[in-house]
Amino acid sequence: MSDCKYVVDVIKLEKAMRVPREVEEQIRRAVGRKLIRRMKLDAVNCPVTGKLTPFLVCFSCKNFIRRVTGKVYCRGLPLD
Fold it and tell me: What is the predicted pLDDT for the residue at 2?
């Protein structure tokens, strides 16, 4: 895993965070509605931005590598 700079825990939320419509539309083409509904209740402390970020935004980020057993693997490169 040499391309992975950060391993971040997934945080389960009680209430879904706001996700931009274009991000949700982009992801809807790849995965089903049930999975999107579950992923809306997840968030991560993004090491690049330093903020709590909805998982759907993290999933659509160019730094996202994979999510395995409650952990997100991130490249950690600067965002434009």
Answer: 61
**H, E, C per residue of the chain:** CCCCCEEEEEEECCCCCCCCHHHHHHHHCCCCHHHHHHHCCEEEECCCCCCEEEHHHHHCCCCEEEEECCEEEECCCCCC
Cα atoms in the Cβ-side hemisphere of radius 13 Å centred on 56: 24
pLDDT (0 to 100) of residue 74: 96
- The predicted model scores a pTM of 0.87
pLDDT for the residue numbered 9: 97
The CA distance from 9 to 57, in Å, is: 15
Q: Are 59 and 65 in contact (CB under 8 A)?
A: no
